[in-house]
Amino acid sequence: MTGEQASTQASPAEELHSILLAHYRFQSLSAGFESGLFEALAEKPGMTKAEIGQKLGLAEQPTRILMLCVTAFGLVRKDGDGYENTAVVEPLTGGKDPVAAALVPYHQHITYKTMGWFWESLKADTNVGLKKVFGEESTTLYERIAVDPVLESAFHNAMGAFSATSSTELVKTLDLSSYTHMLDIGGGRAINATNIARRWPHLQITIIDLPSVAKTANERLAAAGLDDRVRAVGLDAFSDEFPTGADCVLFSHFLEIWSAEGIRKLLQKASRAVGDGAGIFIVTPFQDDDETGPAHAAELSAYFHAVASGEGMVYTPREYEEWMSEAGFTPTGRTPVGELINHIAISGVKGGA
Ligand SMILES: C[S@@+](CC[C@H](N)C(=O)[O-])C[C@H]1O[C@@H](n2cnc3c(N)ncnc32)[C@H](O)[C@@H]1O
Questions:
Q1: Contact residues of ligand 1, CB 6 A cut-off
Q2: I want to staple 262 with a disulfide (CB 3.0 to 4.6 A). Which of 220, 258, 317, 320 is the partner?
Q3: Chain mean pLDDT for the chain
Q4: Global confidence as pTM
Q5: How far apart are CA 204 and CA 181, in angstroms?
């Protein structure tokens, strides 16, 4: 270990302390973000506590507590009587990092309370977090948010911001030149489909998603002038068959939501919907074959189990290839999807390669 590493690396005691108190840090970040504090300081650095309290509509003591928290946690720095943002929160302001900015309300409204039920979810082998926070009748987050506009927009804003980044990388990764019609299963609000349709002007795309999402996707597609080639159909990927007539299928950030059994069913359904020679692309986060990480795979696995579906996790590429083979697709390769998101595209062909 170099001297520099030794001085910057947290000791085990510091690491434990930081984990124990992580919720205070996140809640200070969220309060600073949701109140508009960081945006206000980005626009006018050097505001005093009194000016901040007035701007945020807070009484004196709450202002003092908020400013103590954001300062102590390194989100804001104090210089004389004035405050300014640190580099930590600067990306959350002025649209600089839309993914990070969308993730703050997403974690605040969706994962924060629900992940408090992680251990109970593991013991019960279902998403207790979703049920405890959003109602016992909730089965998946996706169905639950469809009847709650605030949650739906917190989810889709975050997913959309992430998808905007990942789909830019995705269009560079996939070669769709030999296909004419793509099925995009769980295609969300058509962000991938829009980018793919623009990159491959000959391609038709049929998106399948839950009815409320498909409706929004169709509105966005009409606004983008792509509704002659791309349309969304409101279907349940589990209870309905996929439309036939396509010659390639995309599962982007969808299969990992489900159990191995569910994934097998979806891949077999895809196989029934297409003919020999059809392509398949599974775009997904992945965990290392030795099951030691990365951290991103761990976070998402915990989220799928305790919140989103109660059954999914981040699987290894090898598992996907086995399930593809069982469904009649020959795996043809793995391609990293950009550097920003650390996901993979696993491709295959129906029948022989
Ligand atoms: C994580 S998002 C992925 C969106 C998009 N494919 C992407 O890569 O950005 C998962 C999508 O699956 C949809 N979904 C969840 N359950 C579904 C079901 N049973 N049938 C169809 N779509 C479903 C959700 O509405 C959501 O749009």
A1: 142, 159, 163, 186-188, 191-192, 208-210, 213, 236-238, 252-254
A2: 258
A3: 93
A4: 0.86
A5: 5
